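Renewal narrative, Specific Aim 1. Our central claim is that a sequence can be written position by position from structural information alone. The example that follows is taken directly from our test logs and has not been curated for this report. It begins with the C-alpha cells describing the chain, in the order in which they were read.
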C-alpha cells in the first residue's frame, strides 16, 4: 500500500464518521459551538492537533496531481492552514468558526459534503 493509499484509508472513514456525526448529532454540535464562545481552550487544542495532523499528511503526501488522492493533499494543507490561521489570527478565525458551527444549515451541508468525500475515498480504498 502506497503512502497516498494509506492516508486515504485513514482520511476516508474519518470524513465519513465526522460527516455522519454532523448529520445525526446536529444539536450536540450546535451546543458545543455555543460553549466555545465562553471557553476557547478546546478550540486551541483542536487547532494544535490540526497543525500536527496537517503537517504529518504534508510530510508524507504533498503531491498536487489530479487524482482521487488530491483530497489527501488538500486535507493536509487545509488542516495545517486552518490551525495556523486560528492560532495566529484568533479573533477573526474563531468568530468565523463559531458562526459556521452555530448554523444548522452549515453543519448539515458540511456533514453531507464530508460524507460524500469520505464515502468516495473509502469506496476507492476498501471496495474498488
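The sequence written for that structure reads:
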Amino acid at each position: 500500500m502506497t503512502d497516498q493509499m494509506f492516508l486515504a484509508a485513514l482520511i476516508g472513514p474519518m470524513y465519513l464518521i465526522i460527516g455522519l456525526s454532523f448529520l445525526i448529532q446536529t444539536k450536540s454540535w450546535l451546543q458545543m459551538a455555543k460553549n466555545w464562545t465562553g471557553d476557547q481552550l478546546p478550540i486551541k487544542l483542536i487547532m494544535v492537533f490540526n497543525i500536527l495532523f496537517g503537517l504529518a499528511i504534508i510530510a508524507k503526501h504533498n503531491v498536487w496531481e489530479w487524482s482521487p488522492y488530491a483530497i489527501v493533499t488538500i486535507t493536509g494543507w487545509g488542516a495545517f492552514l486552518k490551525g495556523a490561521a486560528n492560532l495566529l489570527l484568533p479573533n477573526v478565525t474563531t468568530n468565523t468558526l463559531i458562526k459556521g458551527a452555530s448554523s444548522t444549515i452549515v453543519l448539515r451541508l458540511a456533514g453531507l459534503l464530508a460524507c460524500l468525500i469520505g464515502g468516495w475515498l473509502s469506496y476507492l480504498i476498501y471496495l474498488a
